[in-house]
Amino acid sequence: MPAALFAAITTILIIDMGVTLNCWVIKESIYPLNEVLPLSFGTFLAFQIWILKYTYGRFWIYAVTEVLLGFVFIFLVQPWLNLQGIWVQINATNFLAYLPVIPHFISVYLYQMWQEDALVPAMKKLFSPKLQTVATKPIYKDEDDPGSLPDRR
Question: How far apart are CA 70 and CA 62, in angstroms?
């Protein structure tokens, strides 16, 4: 999930850079967020979660999936959005809009790898078998002599 949110936020940044550089204009947006496609928090977020769930750990399958879905979005969905008047390209071709796709999906995959490595050691420490509750700790100081009590100095 963190990688999908990272992907949504970086997608919004890419879209905002395109708007700022006058590459395209977003005519329909989410109300409080200016120039943000509703797809960024809807379909795109769901796709990212499922793609990462089923392809994480197999980079080449992930890369092929992302390249194909990026191609579908840029060359099929984006022209349809243009016809609907939602996304209008001004100074950008489809190829120019496709250029950020590859660095974007690589950064999402690297972010997920970073999240996995950062969270796994913490979880291992948290659920370490060396941790014991107070009730399972030995009561006696000397394990050989059950009659000896611990020092209370």
Answer: 12
The dihedral through the CA atoms of 63, 67, 68, 73 has a sign that is positive
How far is Cα of residue 101 from the mean position of the Cα atoms in its chain? 15
DSSP type of residue 125: H
> 3, 105 in Cβ contact below 8 A?
no
Q: Give the count of beta carbons closer than 10 Å to the beta carbon of residue 94.
A: 14
Neighbours of 45 (CB within 10 A): 17
Give the C-alpha separation, 15 to 81, whole Å.
Answer: 14
In which band, very low, low, confident or very high, does the pLDDT at 103 lie, cut at 50, 70 and 90?
very high
Rg (CA), the chain: 26
**Maximum separation of any 2 CA atoms in the chain, in Å:** 87
Q: Are 42 and 79 in contact (CB under 8 A)?
A: no
Q: Please, are residues 89 and 98 in contact by the beta-carbon 8 Å criterion? A: no
The predicted model scores a pTM of 0.67
